[in-house]
C-alpha cells in the first residue's frame, strides 16, 4: 500500500474497502483519503474537485454494499473524525464544529443540566454518542441504541427505527455542498423524512445534538432494553448491512414490513454463495464469511423477484450501493 504527500490529509492508494464496511464484501478504491478534522475534510474534498477526481464518502460503512473489483476515484472516510464534545454555549458552537478542542474544554459547562447538548463530528460513532448521552442522563437518542455507523451517515439517512430517529435530537448540521461551500443548517430549515435526512448531495461534517435532561438510570435502562430487544429480533453480531430494503408504504403491503413480506415469500435461509437471508429477520442478508458483492447483489434481486411474484410490492433497497 503506498501513500502520497500530495493530498491535504492522510491517504492510501488502492485501499481495501471490505473491512471498512459491516457487510465485509467488496473490493478496493484508487484513493482512500482520511481527513482528521472537518477542515481537513473540506480541503480534501476541494483537492478532489480541483483534480477532477470523483468522490464518495464513507462513514461507518454500516449501510453500504461495495462492489467487487476496483472503484475509480477517491473515497473520503470520516473514521478519523471520531470526536464528540460537550457543546459550548450558544455563539461558540461554530468553532466547535471545526474543532478548537482547547477552547471547547474551556467553555464546556461541567453541570449536566444546564446545557444538554453535544457537538459531534461526522466520524463520531453512534454507539459512543448513545452511551455518552445515557451516562449524562440525557434523553432523546435511546432509540438509536444498537444502531451501528457514524453520525454523518446517521444524519444523512435519518437512521432509526421504531423507538426514534436521528433527527429527533438534531439542532443544527454543518454540511459541505457539492461546490465545496460550507453551510450550517438549522433544524427548522430541514425536512428529514423516513430514512432520508433530506440533505440532498450535501455532505455532513458535524452536528449539534440537543437532548432533554432526565435521570441517568432511566435512560440507561431504556438503552439496555432496546439493545436486548434488538439482539432478540436482529442478527446484530453477524456481518450484515442492516436492513436491505425500505419498508414499503403500508397501503401497498397490508401493513406488512419488508422483513415480514420476505418471510411470507419463503425467502428466509435463501443463499447465494456465502450470502444468506437471515433466519432471524428477513430484511437482513448475512455474510457467512466469504461472500462476494456479486453473491449479495444476486440474492437481493432474487428476494425482490420472489416478493414481487407473491405480492404487488417491488421492494426498494435501503442500503447504499457503490459500483
Ligand atoms: N417481522 C416478521 N419477520 C421478519 C422480520 C420482521 O414477521 O423476518 C415482523 C415483526 O415481527 C414486526 C414487523 O415485521 O411485527 C416489523 O419488524 P421490526 O420490528 O423488526 O421492524 P422493521 O420495520 O423490520 C425497522 C427498521 C430497522 C430498525 C427496526 C427496529 C427499516 C427498513 N427498518 O425494522 O432498521 O432497527 O425497525 O427499530 O425501517 C436499518 O435501518 O438498517 C434497520 C435494520
Explain what you see:
With 323 residues, the protein is an alpha+beta fold. The protein folds into 3 domains: 74 residues, Uridine Diphospho-n-acetylenolpyruvylglucosamine Reductase, domain 2 (2-Layer Sandwich), CATH 3.30.43; 135 residues, Uridine Diphospho-n-acetylenolpyruvylglucosamine Reductase, domain 3 (2-Layer Sandwich); 85 residues, UDP-N-acetylenolpyruvoylglucosamine reductase, C-terminal domain (Uridine Diphospho-n-acetylenolpyruvylglucosamine Reductase, domain 1, Alpha-Beta Complex), CATH 3.90.78.10. Helix content is 27%, strand content 25%. The strands form 6 sheets. It has a 5-stranded antiparallel sheet. A 4-stranded mixed sheet has the order 1-2-5-3, with helices on one face. The protein has a 4-stranded antiparallel sheet with strand order 15-18-17-16. The protein is globular and about 55 Å long. It starts with 9 loop residues before the first strand and ends with a strand. The relative contact order is 0.13. The structure holds uridine-diphosphate-2(N-acetylglucosaminyl) butyric acid. The site of uridine-diphosphate-2(N-acetylglucosaminyl) butyric acid (EPU) has 17 residues, from strand 15 and helix 7.
* Strand order in the sheet with the most strands: 6-7-13-11-12
Sequence stretches where pLDDT stays below 50 over 5 or more residues: none
Number of individual domains:
3
- Shape summary: globular
CATH topology of the largest domain: Uridine Diphospho-n-acetylenolpyruvylglucosamine Reductase, domain 3
Tell me the name of the CATH class of the largest domain. Answer: Alpha Beta
Give the helix proportion (percent range): 25-40%
Ligands: uridine-diphosphate-2(N-acetylglucosaminyl) butyric acid
How are helices and strands ordered from N to C? EEHEEEEHHEHEHEEEEEEHEHEEEHE
Question: Helices and strands: which structural class?
Answer: alpha+beta
Number of helices: 8
CATH architectural group of the largest domain: 2-Layer Sandwich
Strands, count:
19
CA gyration radius, whole angstroms? 20 Å
| Main sheet overview | 5 strands, antiparallel
Overall pLDDT level: 93
